[in-house]
């Protein structure tokens, strides 16, 4: 039936929905069973006089189907519940099943049936189930009904509708209250199905959570504990995945989650301030230890894709010019995963947050990160010709701006939505909700295979990254993956090279550059970008810092760039960024230059003492002092600073080191010297800027001239006296003029004094002129 209806050139059609078949007012339940399904409406007052007094409604739900998919001659039993939400007791209720001998011709038809629940081709299936008792207000009753597939004429591979209609029969008058619908795959066997080969199905199994990392050795909160405990979201995912090794899962793991869970395996701290104080100590978590061990076991034998640290919003980072942060997140993620899981990971596959990307991101991944395969939503690359039906297939490729092609695996959008419906993050899923997800998953995969049974194709299943199924639901879905005869589990990495007859389908390429709905905005990432610059500056001055400390700084920045903060989570991301900013500001304030505001200088040159203070408790810094004299307009400074000022200096934690700056040619008066520190690679540390003023009197130089002149006069006088004494010793008479009247002379004549009276005055004058 399906092979005749579905061709590669036939458009998809939606099953037409006929108007409900009107039922006569006086019908028994046996007669109702022979007619098509009636509208699910309340009975009229004529048929049910107390109907106007209802304050709620009576509802029906399907909770199980056995078997989940039928074979030739099978009897299908459908069971469920009836709930009375009215204020009165309900009696005379029965359930009638309906189905069809014709299967759906498209997935669109299945969607329409599930949303509307009525089809003109439906026929009564089996006998109605009459509730033996009444249902009190607020109570729930069980029901079960069966039918044979052969009696309906099911014989071709495909998916068939099943509808359960709740009817009210009172005094031989009947009315329809409500209905529930589900889907039944039919498998006639490999040969009868005409299936060329089973559909390759590959699961991407996500272990992702909000990052709880901050630069201080403490988690932001203790929310992760509940998720790791038995029955929690992350525990359910790992337990279900580990118990189904034959499902060939490909694990997708955020290394930030691994790091946070590993932190909890020992006594750990939660909360605290940006100065790393005030945190609350928590005992080691046995659940975290068990969870990490299970992940380590699973990834040792199954393929694993390691996300960049904190599953950063790679699309937004590329759009905002932060590709370097993406590279840093990949490096940090690989290092964390390797240390915890005990094996080396080389990123070859990427799953952008939300499964969305444009060519700018794909080009960056291919060129900078050497990514060869990317997983996107199937809606990202629809067929180029949408007017012609193309069988669903997961394997495609696209040429990037880097001059190379990248494999694209298209995760089925509909299946992603089906799995999201089973999310329990807002509370436990009911039995009917869990059944609906499991049965819909089975039917969707059967329909994909039946659309083009003569082709070899693949399907990728990618749940939402924060998927929160119950352990039972996750386990049942993997059981169906292995048990369904039209499916063949395959690893994600095997799909690009697997035999696939539909990969040549022309598809629309992603846009060159396009903002993805929900991505971290420019206004959010702007401050984070400035924070990253400050972080690089801080790291540049550290000397001999441990790799783990440097990595923790990078991880804290990546945590602020996580895709978890999209939408309503931006406040939490901003809080993480603010915590890191406060930490950096506190650390930077502990590194400073200490010097006097004014330094007197008596001479033309000298040395100015400058102290470099390192108040960090554990980190040594390596810096150099930068000094420059300030020029005033129209009067360039004559002061010069020696080259020895720029030498690298290492300052141990909690200590200060003094550096002496040689200066010379200081002009008389005030000269401002601006000081700062820079790291070994020349990065300026702007938080260390300061200045001092040199007050030059030049008295020291004048005194030097004075002393020199005095010594010179003394030498001349000594030479003069020595010559005279030598002449006296030779017997020559030296005539001296008589002293003028009233003068007092000792030892010499007034005409040849020992020291001229103006010698010192002349020396002082020379000093002043110098």
Number of strands: 28
Structural class by sheet pairing and helices: alpha/beta
Rg, Cα atoms, Å: 44 Å
Gross morphology is elongated
Classify the beta-strand content into a percent band.
15-25%
Low-confidence stretches: 1-34, 40-55, 731-770
Oligomer: single chain
- Kindly report the average pLDDT value: 84
Main beta-sheet annotation? 6 strands, mixed
- Give the helix level as a range of percent: 25-40%
Distance between the termini: 114 Å
Number of separate helices? 20
What does this structure look like?
The structure is a single chain. The chain has 770 residues and is α/β, with parallel strands linked by helices. The chain has 20 helices and 28 strands. The strands form seven sheets. Strands 19, 21, 23, 25, 27 and 28 form a six-stranded mixed β-sheet that branches. Strands 8, 9, 12, 17 and 18 form a five-stranded parallel β-sheet that branches. A four-stranded antiparallel β-sheet has the order 4-3-6-7. Helix 11 crosses helix 17.
Structure keywords:
single chain, 770 residues, alpha/beta, six-stranded mixed beta sheet, disordered N terminus, disordered C terminus
Summarize the helices and strands and which ones pair or pack:
Elements: H1 2-5, H2 29-32, E1 58-66, E2 75-84, E3 93-99, H3 107-116, E4 123-130, E5 140-148, H4 149-152, E6 158-170, E7 173-186, H5 190-193, E8 199-207, H6 224-228, H7 233-242, E9 250-253, H8 255-263, E10 268-270, E11 280-282, H9 286-301, E12 304-306, H10 314-319, H11 323-341, E13 349-350, H12 359-368, E14 373-377, E15 395-399, E16 405-411, H13 413-420, H14 431-451, E17 458-461, H15 471-483, E18 487-489, H16 522-540, E19 542-543, H17 547-560, H18 570-588, E20 591-594, E21 598-601, E22 605-614, E23 620-629, E24 640-641, E25 648-651, E26 655-664, E27 669-679, E28 684-696, H19 699-729, H20 759-769
Parallel strand pairs: 8-9, 8-17, 8-18, 9-12, 13-14, 14-16, 21-28
Antiparallel strand pairs: 1-2, 2-5, 3-4, 3-6, 6-7, 10-11, 15-16, 19-23, 20-22, 22-26, 23-25, 23-27, 24-26, 27-28
Helix pairs in contact: 7-9, 7-15, 8-11, 11-17, 13-14, 14-15, 16-17, 16-18, 17-18, 19-20
